[in-house]
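Why do we care about 3D structure at all? Because function follows from shape, and shape follows, mostly, from sequence. That is the central idea of this module. The next example makes it concrete: a single protein chain, its amino acid sequence, and then its structure expressed as tokens.
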Amino acid sequence: MPCHPSRPIPSPEGLIEENLLTLAQLRNLVDDLAPNAYRQAFGAHGRHTLGKHVRHIIDHYDALLDGLERGEPAIDYEQRRRDEALEQWPQEAASHLAGIEARLSSLGSATSSDALILGYPMDDEALSLASSLARELAFLTSHSIHHMAIIALLAEQLGIGLPESFGVHPSTLRHWQRESVEQAPLSRRSA
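And the structure:
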């Protein structure tokens, strides 16, 4: 449903919930991993590990939440911490993810129309793009799911079983649910 200027902007609770569900799914995987599996290198250059993708996701949440907590309207995802401990030690990453979940939960009273500026560096200049909390929460869900889909492929190579819903965007899960209901026999739907 498109947003119309005449309609009130929705509160971010639904977007926060999507992020919380995504992060809980990731934290559950990470919390159970052995460090050697978390650090296992993949790819021709060995640049891909479960841990690097998890740390990358964490960095993006930290960039948004740190800016909000400082009261800064500018968000810059390029200025990330890149804490190597978070890509080396799964239990440390799981703990950090739990902290992000708590921080996100405390945003419940924020309004999604709060104006934010997204800093986007280009070659010799930085763009300042108008954004909002709702827009950035939607971005973080999609960004996280994208990396979780890669994590799922890497985990599969390690023989780690994951739920079918891992790394699947909430909109796709809703679509699957609607399809399931539509394909159910009429007698089951009316029961």
